[in-house]
Amino acid sequence: MLLLGVILALLLSASIDILDRGRAFYRSTTLQVAEHISDIARALDAVNPADRERIVHQLSDRRLAIALSRNAAPVDGMSERSYARAFQAMLQRNLGSNWPVHVLLRHVRRPRSRPSSSFSETPVNLLDRYLTLRLFYRAPRGFAFVTQIGLHDGSWVTFSARLPYEHVARLYILLPKLGLSLAIAVILVLIAARWVTRPMKKMAQAALALGQNLNSAPLEESGPEEIRATARALNVMQLRVQEYVRDRAAMLAALSHDLKTFITRLRLRTELLPDSAHRNRLIKDISDMGAMIGATLEYLRGIDPGQGRTQFDATALAESIRIDAGDMGWDVTVEGEAGAPFYGNPQDLRRCIMNLVDNAIKYAGRATIRISDRPAELAIAVCDPGAGIPPQQRDRVFEPFYRSQPERGRDREGTGLGLNIARTIARAHGGDMVLQDLSPSGFCVAIRLPRRLPPVTTTV
Fold first, then answer.
1. For 247-260, how does the pLDDT look when each residue is reduced to its tens digit (9 = 90+)?
2. Domain 303-450 indexed as CATH 3.30.565.10
3. Quick check: 452 and 343 in contact, CB under 8 A?
4. pTM score, two decimals?
């Protein structure tokens, strides 16, 4: 919008300049013609009437025709045109009020023949012929001033002067000027736009960092007033969210302690009951309830991406998960390796991958951890040979407490929070989670994590 406005302003300025140049040219040339006619009229009035014919013959040319007469002969023309009135006022000022002056505007035929072009024309003449903006100011081409001035001896002299016209703009001169002005304007507009948008870009980056790390440094309140006000509002929002998170963490800690206390009491009292099938089912229900409450509190506690970040070997992390899974009797293999250390929270990523492995073991009996490392991204996929998740359910599997294929998982442990927690951890690291079908069979849940450099620390 700025660039379009500048272009329109330049075009309007060029148009005004052309019209102003035409106005100046018209006034100067008509004034010169009026002064020339006034000088000739004074000269004819001062000489002997017998010598006037000779002088008129010598002064007449193609642009100015002069004729003498004893009386003011009627002349066809338009006397009410503003051009004629303005030209008559110029003559009257030059000659004085005691000189009778009549001015008419008469149409004259344009010559049909044009001068033929020749090979001897210079490049400037050719440019002037073909790249000239044929714009005439105030009066059209093809008119002439017919002026009758009365001399002091009673005779009259008639002047027929072609209306002055000229090409007021030549494109081969105008276009380079416009191009240079436009280039300068574009550069200035780009600099101004960058100057305006740079604080917004920094603010957007800081807002993204705030979304990934709630304890990041506050935004710098600098720049224009609007930018400072927005940064101030974001800083206030960050403080309020931090207070909310702290209050929620304290509430969850108290709730977790009280719930665990009650569950422990129930378990102890159940253990004191006589041994029976009803007692065993009650103990299992209490264990399931404890696991569900623990998972729910863990989910509500959320992920703090700024805590515990360090550089670690993703391949070693996957191998440790495979060993732990083997100790539990799970069939887990690892494929691929990371080419460089990854900066993140190894405990959270271990929890993320373990949730995916747990799902794969539950529904397919086997899991494969595949590592694919690129310069800008680390991808860790957990694949299984199972049927996977139906396409119509993939938009909902990340919802809390939602479990796909409930008919298969009715007798299986779980709360429906594993995928949601895993995706939350991936997004806390700036990445995301993608569901993929394998060919010809199988299913993968891929974690894509962008590589980021650790913060630079200096020691004194």
1. 877 777 777 777 77
2. yes
3. yes
4. 0.47
